[in-house]
């Protein structure tokens, strides 16, 4: 059995369908059925049959209330009962913790941030970036089950099969109270970087906080989100949750505008999944141009002003 | 509270991709490719530990490393920033331990330390990016874990921590003993030590334990391996950057948007 786990609220979202796509292909290669467990609500479980799941589970409970303790216990129980060989989770802040802990509870192996899955001699082989994305590695598990988190945007979404799956409901066990949620802070302003198709990111070249206000408008006009380099966050021009890179967020948009970003390895580690990078920098030798598909040698503030003019007029 | 911060010394993560290489025989970067430094998230973890000590939450701080001989530099750095003790579990770099094996040695070392109640680890090592060691240590100690923490303070017998959650930050109350993995944050930039403290640190003793002394014979350590590294390579990136030029910024902007449309990369909101 391949167990896919989603926290999608209400419906199977893009992340959930990518997960189901990876699960269905792996299931076919290993000759294993696919089950989906939804910790976000019944909607995703009800849809799972239509994307290749043979069974679906809704795990009820206030999963956030105990940190991840309750969700972990519930998933460990379900994975054992289903004798899952592979558990697939979407890679995010939550599963960065849940993935390794679940693998350990099951006596298995964790693989984080997988970007591809192949099967060789009946064993799943996972590809993942290492050294901040400067190299790739393939890893296999010496001990199953494997709990893998999958990078957003790296896997094709599941095809609709028109199938159905029986949905059963579980309740997550109560946690022991060692961890309790006190408050969830207001979500930061602006679109989520992980889901954005277009990211307008600024670095040292943007020069000040006002420059970031212009990026907000540019992002809005392009239907995207604003990102920032470590230098820009350190300077206080952008909040830490906007940082892209090894020590920030890993993103996979269609287009990544790197504006006034030189392209330090630290930053490139976060944009390995971008389909196209547009680099704008005054220095034609900046390393960002080696990663970019399209480049403009120009002061990035001048470029942003011209883009804003053009897009405002097009409205 | 006695806190233990887990450190790791890694190859300089700012080495540019153009000079980065992997030796296909050993499946790792060749020795001497660049300097090794205390990893970025370990720096954040050490800073958080020092902040907790400044606030009186932690009264004793031990820096712990499982790694090859050059890891001593990271321990000296921790001592220079006034960690109380430094412990080095020295391993042969050729063994290339996986996260499970590293955690096995760390757990044995933590158990041998006097009444440690809090373990701070970086969210992931900036070389192999496995992101597992802190959590495996927590599970094997039977302690709760909270991931991606960037602030902690004491509050009525527990720790109040702030962490990066999905889409929003969260505040959680954690009852020690516990493991926190630490993520980057502007408030966690590692402080500079004084020259005096650095000189004093060179005179402090580092406790050295071998895997054998921790009760882990070579066979036992080998059996703890979970991840098999089958191949490592540097992907060939053949990307010619197409420069967009024009007589003025307006022309460049128009051409760039046109090119993005042609490449079907931009679907602008209607």
What's the total helix number of chain B? 7
User: Quaternary arrangement of the chains shown?
Assistant: heterodimer
Estimated helix fraction of chain A: 25-40%
Distance between the amino and carboxyl termini of chain B: 58 Å
How far apart are the first and last residues' alpha carbons of chain A, in Å? Answer: 51 Å
- Strand coverage percent of chain A: 25-35%
Uncertain stretches of 5 or more adjacent residues of chain A: none
Secondary structure class of chain B reads alpha/beta
- Count of extended strands of chain A: 16
Structural class of chain A: alpha/beta
What's the gyration radius of chain B in Å? Answer: 22 Å
User: Approximately what portion of the residues of chain B adopt beta-strand conformation?
Assistant: 25-35%
Helix/strand order of chain B, N-terminal first:
EEEHEHEHEHEEEEHEHEEH
Tell me about the biggest sheet of chain A?
Answer: 7 strands, parallel
Shape of chain B: globular
């Amino acid at each position: 059995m391949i167990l896919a786990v989603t926290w999608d609220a209400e419906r199977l979202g893009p992340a959930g369908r990518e997960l189901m796509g990876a699960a269905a292909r792996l299931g076919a290669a290993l000759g294993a059925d696919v089950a989906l467990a939804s910790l976000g609500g019944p909607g995703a479980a009800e849809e799972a049959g239509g994307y290749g799941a043979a069974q679906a589970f809704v795990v009820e409970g206030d999963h956030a209330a105990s940190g991840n303790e309750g969700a972990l216990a519930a998933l460990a129980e379900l994975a054992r009962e289903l004798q899952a060989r592979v558990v697939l989770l979407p890679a995010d802040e939550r599963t960065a913790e849940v993935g390794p802990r679940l693998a350990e509870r099951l006596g298995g192996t964790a693989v984080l941030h997988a970007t591809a899955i192949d099967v060789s001699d009946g064993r799943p082989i996972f590809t993942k970036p290492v050294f901040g994305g400067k190299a790739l590695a393939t890893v296999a598990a010496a001990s199953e089950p494997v709990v893998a988190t999958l990078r957003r945007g790296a896997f094709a979404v599941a095809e609709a099969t028109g199938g159905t799956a029986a949905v059963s409901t579980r309740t997550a066990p109560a946690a022991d109270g060692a961890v309790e949620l006190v408050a969830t802070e207001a979500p930061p302003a602006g679109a989520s970087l992980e889901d954005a198709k277009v990211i307008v990111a600024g670095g040292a070249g943007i020069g000040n906080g006002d420059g970031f206000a212009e990026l907000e408008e540019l992002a809005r006009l392009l239907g995207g989100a604003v990102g920032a380099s470590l230098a820009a966050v350190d300077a206080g021009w952008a909040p830490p949750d906007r940082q892209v890179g090894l020590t920030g967020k890993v993103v996979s948009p269609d287009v990544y505008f790197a504006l006034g970003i030189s392209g330090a390895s630290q930053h490139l580690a976060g944009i390995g999944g971008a389909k196209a990078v547009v680099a704008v920098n005054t220095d034609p030798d900046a390393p960002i141009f080696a990663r970019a598909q399209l480049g403009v040698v120009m002061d990035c503030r001048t470029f942003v002003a011209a883009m804003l003019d053009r897009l405002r007029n097009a409205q | 509270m006695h806190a233990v911060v887990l450190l790791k010394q890694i190859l300089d993560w700012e080495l540019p991709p153009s000079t980065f290489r992997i030796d296909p025989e050993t499946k790792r970067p060749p020795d001497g490719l660049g300097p090794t430094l205390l990893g970025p998230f370990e720096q954040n973890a050490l800073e958080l530990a020092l902040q907790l000590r400044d606030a009186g939450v932690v009264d004793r701080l031990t820096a712990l490393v499982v790694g090859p001989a050059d890891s001593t530099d990271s321990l000296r750095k921790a001592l220079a920033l006034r960690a109380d003790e430094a412990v080095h579990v020295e391993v042969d770099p050729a063994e290339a331990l996986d996260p499970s094996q590293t955690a096995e040695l760390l757990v044995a070392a933590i158990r041998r330390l006097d009444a440690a109640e809090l373990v701070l680890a970086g969210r992931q090592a900036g070389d192999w990016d496995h992101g597992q060691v802190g959590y495996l240590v927590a599970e094997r100690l039977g302690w709760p874990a909270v991931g991606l923490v960037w602030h902690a303070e004491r509050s009525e017998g527990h720790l109040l921590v702030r962490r990066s959650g999905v889409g929003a930050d969260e505040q959680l109350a954690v009852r020690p003993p516990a493991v926190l993995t630490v993520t980057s944050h502007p408030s966690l930039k590692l402080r500079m030590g004084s020259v005096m403290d650095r000189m004093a640190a060179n005179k402090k003793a580092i406790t050295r334990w071998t895997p054998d002394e921790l009760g882990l014979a070579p066979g036992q350590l080998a059996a703890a391996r979970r991840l098999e590294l089958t191949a490592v390579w540097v992907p060939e990136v053949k990307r010619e950057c197409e420069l967009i030029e024009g007589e003025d910024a307006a022309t460049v902007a128009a051409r760039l948007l046109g090119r993005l449309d042609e490449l079907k990369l931009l679907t602008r909101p209607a």
